[in-house]
Amino acid sequence: RKEVEQDPGPLNVPEGATVAFNCTYSNSASQSFFWYRQDCRKEPKLLMSVYSSGNEDGRFTAQLNRASQYISLLIRDSKLSDSATYLCVVNRGGADGLTFGKGTHLIIQP
Amino acid sequence: DTGVSQDPRHKITKRGQNVTFRCDPISEHNRLYWYRQTLGQGPEFLTYFQNEAQLEKSRLLSDRFSAERPKGSFSTLEIQRTEQGDSAMYLCASSLGGPQRGANYNEQFFGPGTRLTVL
Predict the structure, then answer these.
(1) Which residue did the predictor score with more confidence, A3 or A1?
(2) pLDDT tens digits for A57-69?
(3) CA dihedral B14, B84, B38, A14 (to 10 degrees)
(4) With contacts defined as CB-CB under 8 Å, which chain A residues touch B97?
(5) Which band of pLDDT confidence, cut at 50, 70 and 90, is reported for residue B103?
(6) Is A43 within 8 Å of B41 when comparing Cβ atoms?
(7) Contacts of B26 in chain A (CB under 8 A)
(8) In this complex, do B50 and A103 lie within 8 Å of one another by their Cβ atoms?
(9) What is the pLDDT of residues B9-18, one digit of tens each?
(10) How far is CA A61 from CA A55, A57, A64, A75, A99, in A?
């Protein structure tokens, strides 16, 4: 089983719709969780950290279920500029390297 | 621009040649990471430094790869005797270590990467 699993997509979604991304991780010792966004041929950029209680940043909401080892990201009122690959990322804690999923490619259609 | 910088942005080399990449982290960050990304995959961790000490190396980092961070600031990644399978984007990231930022203090910020093509 891969350490971080995501559906690769692509997700084709009309502008204004709500988009949901899901991710599972295998290492129960994981302590830190993130969503990164990566545009084509660019570096990954931190979108948001994911906290146990869930957290929201504008149109973006992240949830963590430690019991199920499941992470989600919701984008409301999607914009054309949201088109990108969304990477689910976990970290074992401390200063360890990040473990990335393959990413889910999102295409917002006008 | 005070973000992570990498040089060169692109490198084309012939199989068997040695290449060296440089990374300059965000100035106050004490941790520096190297990753490799191939098409259709997420980045894969290679190694990391805390200040000048190299504290972890992935099994992906073969003997042909060596990384240094001699003064705890910039870092270099050298690949000796390059192979076509080394073709990838090499990404550097930095973070500010320490628990004061809360549970997710290992937020890492990435540079633009060096795209290596081995012919």
Answers:
(1) A3
(2) 999 999 999 999 9
(3) 80
(4) 95
(5) very low
(6) no
(7) none
(8) no
(9) 999 999 999 9
(10) 6, 6, 10, 7, 21
